[in-house]
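Homework help board

Subject: predicted structure for assignment chain

Our instructor gave us this sequence and asked us to write out the predicted structure in token form, then describe one feature. I got the tokens but I'm not sure how to describe them. Can anyone check?
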Amino acid sequence: MHKRLKKYIFSLFYTTITTFGIVVAGALVRSGYSYIGDGEIFVFRDNLLVFLAVLAICYLIGLSWCGFSLRLPRYDYVGRIIGFNLIIYSALGLGLSWMRIPLYSRTLILSEFLVSTLFILTFIYLSHRFFPLVIGAFSSEPRDSIGTARYLKWAPLQDRTALSIGVDAVVLEPMQESSPEQMRLITALSQQGATVYDRNHIETLLTGRIRLDALTLSEFDSLSTRNSYTLVKRVVDISITLLLTPFLAVLTVFIAALIKLDSLGPVFFFQKRVGFKGKNFTLYKFRSMFDSEASNSTRFAEENDKRITRVGRFLRRTRLDEVPQFWNVLKGDMSIVGPRPEQLEFVNRFTRAIPYYGFRHTVHPGITGWAQTMHGYAADEDQTRRKLEYDFFYIRNISAWLDLIIFFRTFKVLIVGKGVR
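My token output:
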């Protein structure tokens, strides 16, 4: 049986079963589980039938969009699924509230969001696992297997026999001319429905970073923030910070007491960092090192660094040492999301050693960011190069959607403690 037919049958079967699951879950939560014993959970009282149909439609919209847009296993497919589903069910909840329909609780909406998100994540995973995209290439597969490239199959395009192996996409070298025979093969594959990708573009989609050796001067036109989103981003930063202020105040008092009980020295640590447009500013943190070491800390932190206090290790593990930087956000030195600001000594060093390093200062630095959630701590020049590639990806693709994905990934980092030093 042809691969595409198998995938179609699988998709139809999965969609049918899970849509029924969405309806059952909605009926159960709506009834409060009180009708399970007498088999009356599907007695369509209180317009339940209409509401269950709405839930099924919301799920089918999310499943269809994710299935279509995530055929290629992008670096951010989990975040995109969660984010898009969150938008759908938030809109549903706001619509019910606006229409003053009191029958359906927030618990029901949240339950349906969680169940549908799980179903869609499972569908995308199974699709990538059992029906991987076949990518045809005239040369080798991507230079970097990091990311979602493990969900792809690579097929060499040598002759027209490639037409019979079900190629889903074709990868071309950006600076390499194709021969007439190759062009005829690409045209034939395109007519069969294959998508044509630039190699650098597909590697970026798979890894979520822009390789330094793939950057050209023409790309720097896009390495600047869109002015309209800059204003929106600033308003969101201030709003979130003000909303969190009462909680942050209580948290600050608690952490300050722990720091004082644990070691001698001040509660806060101040350090000059390089920010937007290369301007220096004072960054605020909770002190996590012994006072004598913190004052002379212009070097990378190491694994099990002896300069770090007991409380400091906990603060770094949970990223709570960064909490005072919300004051930097209010002052306009930083944003909540953006590349991490580096020390002046490191900036001078990396600017000399790494091409294009200064372009990371075309946006405001952030408390969290794409590079931090994708790579973690950079402890040497090579890791800094890799982290810079993630920063460039963020700068070129900066948007509310990407910032939302970074928020989701930040929670994951907080839980697993990735990249802690």
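Reply (TA_rk): Your tokens look well-formed. For the description, you could write something like this. The two ends are 52 Å apart (CA to CA). That's the kind of observation they're looking for.
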